[in-house]
Amino acid sequence: MSAVDLYDKPSNNFSDLVNDSIALIQATQLKHAGAWTQANSLGAEDVVVTHLLHMAGALKTSDTSVFVLDTQRLHAQTLSLIAALEHRYAISVRVFQPQVEQVLALVKRVADNGIYESKAHRLDCCNVRKMQPLTHALAGQVGWITGLRREQSNTRSVASSLEQETTRLKLNPILDWTWGDVWHFIAQHQLAYNPLHDAFFPSIGCEPCTRAISVGEDFRAGRWWWESSDSHMPAKECGLHVQAATPLVAATTPTEQST
Ligand code: SF4
Is 206 contained in some domain? Predict the structure, then answer.
């Protein structure tokens, strides 16, 4: 059974959600002109957001780009989606990798299994392979666009669709979509998606830090499954989406769950 067969289950107001997301992208980019870039993790939500940018006409302009953080620990199935995106939308995806010197120093500090033995070591790895490249990806951008959804985690449930971070904006156009909406959109538009989703990987990150989940497990249970939350970092987060931000659009109540 494919992920589409399993999860395609739209909310009653699915059409409104799609229209609202496109309108939000267009209105935000009109009001806040300049360079915008989508953080595409090559998971289900992010292929949806890239297609919404296409529908909104944003990918036709040189002001909107798509980037991938290639940590050099991604699954081959994940990386193969880059070519599919470039082909479908006639774009050049910006790919950011960690600096060689920083990786060499990291490997000296953190042994192969170190990320499983110490949260500090795991965050060190995330910092070198994700956070530092993210800084380069976001340099000079007015704002970035994500595929965050409220129902992904408690941390994300309080996000706003448009936020002001310290130096740039953050747009979350599918914040109120359900997992069923994401898969209905993928099926409706025949989007290429990561085949790991067909193998019970709802949330996909680096290969050493992602596993399949079982029936009844939390959506992000397969990410950093050996860790628990602490005062430095919420569980199931690498730091990309835990920066302080001020809502610019009033938080809405979560939409009606899928039927
Ligand atoms: S998710 Fe795992 S492998 Fe990827 S950067 Fe973080 S610790 Fe390293």
Answer: yes
Residues contacting ligand 1 via CB (< 6 Å): 71, 73, 115, 122, 125-126, 129-130, 205-206, 208-209, 238
163 CA from centroid of ligand 1 (Å): 26
Q: Is 126 a catalytic residue?
A: no
The pLDDT tens digits for 142-195 are 999 999 999 987 666 768 999 999 899 999 999 999 999 999 999 999 999 999
Does some domain include residue 13?
yes
DSSP string, 37-79: EEE--SSHHHHHHHHHHHHTTGGGSTTEEEEEE--S-B-HHHH
- Give the CATH number of the domain where residue 177 resides: 3.40.50.620
Are the CB atoms for 97 and 133 separated by under 8 Å? yes
